[in-house]
Amino acid sequence: MSNADLNRADLTGAKLCGANLSRTNLSRAKLDCVNLSNANLQQANLEYSQLNNAVLKRTNLSGAQLTGAELSGADLGEAVLTRANLKFSQLKGAFLKNAQLIDANLEGAELQRAYLGAIDLSKAILKGAKLGRAQLRGANLRCARLHQIQLNAADLKSADLSYAELNGVELGGADMRGVNLDHAKLQETNLIRSNMMAASLIRATLNKINISKADLTCANLTGADLNGTSLIGTNLMAAEMAGATLQHAQLLRANLNNANLQNCDLTAADLRRANLSGASLKGSRLHRAELQNANLLGAYLANASLCDVHLNRAYLTDANLNNSDLVGADLRAADLTRVNLSTAKVTNTLFGNEVRFDREVANDLVRRGAILTVPFQMRQKTF
User: Fold this and answer.
1) 236, exposed or middle or buried, with CB in 10 Å at 0-12, 13-18, 19+?
2) Is the dihedral of CA 166, 171, 175, 177 positive or negative?
3) Which tens digits make up the pLDDT trace of 6-36?
4) Rounded to whole angstroms, how far apart are CA atoms 263 and 270?
5) Which of the four pLDDT bands, split at 50, 70 and 90, describes residue 358?
6) What is the distance between the alpha carbons of residues 267 and 289, in angstroms, rounded to a whole number?
């Protein structure tokens, strides 16, 4: 029956397992509940056809035209839809486990509550698609283009989105544990409250997006671009962030306990009340950063550049500031218990009278250009 013209045909409930319908015209056909498992529908025309609850398991639909087709509840498990055109199709609640949609066009498609586990959507176009609460666990979306789509509360656990483009995507509340976003580009994307534990975002572009209150525990953000990104209240505990750029990033109340921030650029970042205890900031740049009331207990800041940084009322007990640059920094009311400043640059560094130093230490700081407010408390040297 290949190349046949079945335009507007009514084949509701028909059993066509293994049928050869390649290049057949089935546009606007009624195919609800039809069984087309293992059938050949390569390059078939199924535009605006009705395939609700149809069985299309292991069906070959590569290159097929399915614009506006209704496939709600359809079983497309292991189906081949490579380069298929599914623009504005209805796939609500459809089953597409292990289906291949490489290079497929799903612009404007509705896939709410669809099961897309282990699906291959590499290089697919998903502009404007609706995937709310869709099951995409382990899906392959490498190099996919996801523009203006809804993925709220979707399950993307362990999905591969490396090198993908996500522009204007709604991912609020999505489960993205272990997701691979290496080298992905995310613009105007909403990741509020998303679960991204152990996610990989190596060299991902995440600038000026909202990741507030998300969970990025143990995530890998090495070399990521987070300039101007909102990470307010985000959990980044033990995250790997070496070499990341976070200029003007908003990290108010963020949890960076034991995070690796070596050689990061945190220029003008807002880290007020952030938890940086045990974090490594070796060699990082924090010019004009806001660190008021931040917790830096035991933090490693050797060779860090802290020029003009605001550290007033910060907790720096046991922090390592060896060879750090504190020129013009404000450390008034900071807790500097057991902090060694002997090799730090302190020209015009401001220390408040709440800090207690040995007289020798205080005199040494003044000789090196520090500014100690008066009256300044001196701790009696004991012998």
Assistant:
1) buried
2) positive
3) 999 999 999 999 999 999 999 999 999 999 9
4) 17
5) low
6) 6
Q: Which residue has tokens 């995409």?
A: 136
- From 254, 236, 166, select the one nearest 205 (Cα to Cα): 166
- Show the tokens assigned to 101: 């949609």
- Tell me if 140 sits within 8 A of 158, measured CB to CB: no
Q: How many residues does the chain have?
A: 383
Whole-number Å distance between alpha carbons of 327 and 87? 59
* DSSP assignment of 244-289: -B-TT-B-TT-B-TT-B-TT-B-TT-B-TT-B-TT-B-TT-B-TT-
SS3 sequence, 186-226? EECCECCCCECCCCECCCCECCCCECCCCECCCCECCCCEC
Q: Whole-angstrom distance between the N-terminal and C-terminal Cα of the chain?
A: 103
Judge residue 342's burial from the number of C-beta atoms within 10 Å of its C-beta, 0-12 exposed, 13-18 middle, 19 or more buried.
exposed
Read off the pTM: 0.88
Kindly report the CA angle at 351 between 347 and 353, in degrees rounded to 5? 150
Lookup: tokens for 34? 């039809």
CA distance 114 to 154: 10
Are 29 and 51 in contact by the 8 Å Cβ rule? The answer is no
